[in-house]
Amino acid sequence: MQLSALSARTGVAIPTLKYYRREGLLPPGEPVSATRAHYDETHVERVRLIRALVQGAGLSITAVRAVTEALDSPPASRHELYGIAQRALPVPGADRPVRHEVRELVATLGWRVTDDAPALRSLGDALDAARSGGIPMTPEVLERYARSCHPVAELDVEQVRAAESPSAALTTVVVGTVLTDPVLSALRRLAQEDVSARTADPRG
Amino acid sequence: MQLSALSARTGVAIPTLKYYRREGLLPPGEPVSATRAHYDETHVERVRLIRALVQGAGLSITAVRAVTEALDSPPASRHELYGIAQRALPVPGADRPVRHEVRELVATLGWRVTDDAPALRSLGDALDAARSGGIPMTPEVLERYARSCHPVAELDVEQVRAAESPSAALTTVVVGTVLTDPVLSALRRLAQEDVSARTADPRG
Per the CB < 8 Å rule, is A112 touching B199? Predict the structure, then answer.
């Protein structure tokens, strides 16, 4: 299809598609003349992914490029995918040392996490924000939250293993890491209402 | 303390504090003269809460006002807190109908959720964003994610019940709803690395 058809299929304006191409997010089409190129289903898929990351997940163009570059050269093992996905995504404070409290938590849990995992840093920042808002988050409560997150992560990894190809698996890791947080956040709120209703009126 | 001391204690500039006061987020101090007022620890706490909501959770001033108004007139029962907290926070698409798929999910789970819960709407939007990014999210997978979120919500409600006063409970609900999402998100990523490492090398 031509660029105009790609625009119609994806609902993204032609100048925006040209911008994605210049920025290296969208691979070039197959040239059919000096001024025209042919685009296929892989381009449709890529444009949808870029939109999802920019609009759905609020990523910057630089962060999207890190993701698409990883997609264009998938790693050999699926375990490496987690490292690539987590490192592709922007994490505030990635250059700060990991906090003692966070190291203690991981040791207590016995989790196998490499020392350069960005989530080790972002957990420290997230704890700061929660505590400054008046949420105590004692080590004991934090440990219980961590343990109750583990089954969610087991489901995540199962989804990645079920993906058909390394590239589909990387999409699941990268996009899933960012785009399913809001799904879990909504489910958590619904579950809170359920638990609260049952506690207030145990008959139901 | 005077406004300058409140500024020094909280690290928030005096003009910003005056802005919070004009917007009704920060209650007035006790007047000590025509131009001076006395502020106490409740003001320090309130300023920290506002900062956490604005900077940590990215809320607008209007959304923060909804939260502080709820804090200033706490409801009678703790179950009502969830309704107030969820309705105080801005939800995109709150005026749209709840999707059939979301109703089916809640029915399958047997969860007790009132029909006006904003998370019913935000779940639909979150599913759209995830799917447009290539994450399939079948009804079966969604149901499993929902069930694995329930223990997290049980912990959430337990924290609220442990709070000392209705006002402390409301802080936990409102702030906790927004500010602990990033904590859970970081824990989920750490747990993913752990699960992935164990799957790749089961000896450890």
Answer: no
Helix axes A41-51, A61-72, angle to 10 degrees: 140
DSSP 3-state assignment of B31? strand
Write out pLDDT tens, residues A20-57.
Answer: 999 999 999 999 998 889 999 989 988 988 887 787 66
Q: What is the DSSP letter of B77?
A: S
Q: What does the alpha-carbon distance between residue A94 and residue A96 come to, in Å, rounded to a whole number?
A: 6
Greater pLDDT, A81 or A54: A54
What residues of chain B score a pLDDT lower than 70?
56-58, 74-79, 81-82, 84-95, 165-167, 170, 202-204
Facing B153 at nearest CB: one of A135, A149, A195: A195
**Backbone phi and psi for residue B92, each to the nearest 5 degrees, phi listed first:** -65, 140
Residues of A in contact with B178 (CB under 8 A): 133
The residues facing A37 across adjacent strands are: A31
The interface pTM score, or ipTM, of the predicted complex is 0.76
3-state secondary structure of A112: coil
Note whether B85 and B170 are within 8 A (CB): yes
Q: Are strands B30-31 and A30-31 parallel, antiparallel or unpaired?
A: unpaired
B167, amino acid identity: S
Instruction: Give per-residue pLDDT as tens, B137-179.
Output: 899 999 999 999 999 999 988 888 887 766 677 677 777 777 8
Mean pLDDT of A63-86: 73
Say if residues B124 and B96 touch (Cβ distance below 8 Å). Answer: yes
Kindly list the residues from chain A whose CB atom is less than 8 angstroms away from the CB atom of residue B115.
none
Asked if the model's pLDDT at residue A93 lies above 90, the reply is: no
Cα separation, B116 vs B178, whole angstroms:
19
Q: What are the Cα distances from residue A11, in Å, to A3, A51, A58? A: 12, 10, 18
Contact B195 A150 (CB under 8 A): yes
Rounded to the nearest angstrom, the minimum Cα separation between A70 and chain B is 16
The H or E element containing residue A30 is strand A30-31
8-state DSSP, B99: P
Q: What DSSP string runs through B48-112?
A: HHHHIIIIIS---HHHHHHHHHHHHS--SSHHHHHHHHHHHS--TTTTSPPPHHHHHHHHHHT--
- What is the rounded distance in angstroms from the CA atom of residue A134 to the CA atom of residue B13? 21
Angle formed by the axes of helices B14-22 and B41-51, nearest 10°: 90
CB pairs under 8 A between A and B: 300
Cα B104 from Cα A190, distance rounded (Å): 13
**Tokens at B200, concatenated:** 């790749």
